[in-house]
Amino acid sequence: MRLLAKAMRFSIKFSLFRLLTFRKNKELVQLIKRIQSESGFMMWPDEMSMLYTTAFALKNKKGDFAEVGVSTGGSAKLISEAKGGKNFHLFDTFEGLPEPGEQDKHLHRGQYTCSLPAVKEYLKSYTAIHYYPGLFPQTSKPVENKTFSFVHLDVDLYQSTLDAIRFFYPRLETGGMLISHDYSTVPGVRKAFDEFFIETPEVVVELPTSQCLVVKI
After folding, report:
1. Could you read off the pLDDT of 11-41 as tens digits, one per residue?
2. DSSP string of 17-72?
3. At 153, which helix (H) or strand (E)?
4. Would you list the DSSP string of 60-92?
5. Helix H or strand E encompassing 8
6. d(Cα 2, Cα 8) in Å, to the nearest integer?
7. How far is the CA of 30 from the CAs of 27, 41, 70, 93, 142, in angstroms?
8. d(C-alpha 46, C-alpha 52), whole Å
9. Tens of pLDDT along 134-178?
10. Residue 162 is inside which H or E element, if any?
11. CB 6 within 8 A of CB 35
């Protein structure tokens, strides 16, 4: 059964790469393939394409870039390829997920553990990258007076997602974008977004991938 699931996943991923080849430039497709092979990155090719093109579109807009939930650094590398000279702030416990709450079924403390030294080594060829190990938003003080044009969330948990939205939403520049992984697949992530943005002029756009996108008005 496990071999069958692995074969099906490979087949789906191969099909997505073929679709990307028709829709996107070859350089982006090769970049996505390379990052997946380097880091064992779990994000699907179409999600990676969405992440890259969104970041690339904002590289000349006012405001820094940020990511909460770095894992092995695959998405950070993808964004770094798109960001130009932007300051890029990376937040992660680097000890895996904190304690899940009642909303976070099937997740456990310490899941998705990653190594800060390993991520730094992986991203060493990029400039203007800043690391903040520890539990967010306790680690946010160094950037509390900054504004942002692009923020990527991949934190899986309800409370972690809500905390990150609460911090970054008022610091997003007009036209800035907040994109999150797992909106369509992890109930706690969806709940955090839907609860917060019900009282704002912005809307949560569910993308064809598992992601969602919010554009600051």
Report:
1. 445 555 555 655 568 899 899 989 988 877 7
2. HHHHHHHS-HHHHHHHHHHHHHH---S-HHHHHHHHHHHHHTTTSSSEEEEE--TT
3. strand 148-153
4. TSSSEEEEE--TTSHHHHHHHHH-TT--EEEEE
5. helix 2-23
6. 10
7. 5, 14, 21, 30, 35
8. 10
9. 999 999 999 999 999 999 999 999 999 999 999 999 999 999 999
10. helix 158-168
11. no
Using CA atoms, how far apart are residues 94 and 177, in angstroms rounded to an integer? 25
Name the 3-class secondary structure at 140: coil
- State percent of the chain over pLDDT 90: 75
pLDDT tens, residue by residue, 50-69 = 999 999 999 999 999 999 99
CA angle 200, 83, 213 (to 5 degrees): 25
**For residue 137, is the peptide bond before it cis, meaning its omega torsion is within 30 degrees of 0?**
yes
Amino acid at 12: I
Which helix (H) or strand (E) segment holds residue 167: the answer is: helix 158-168
As a whole number of angstroms, the distance between CA 192 and CA 187 comes to 9
DSSP class of residue 135 equals S
Is the whole model's pTM more than 0.85, yes or no? yes
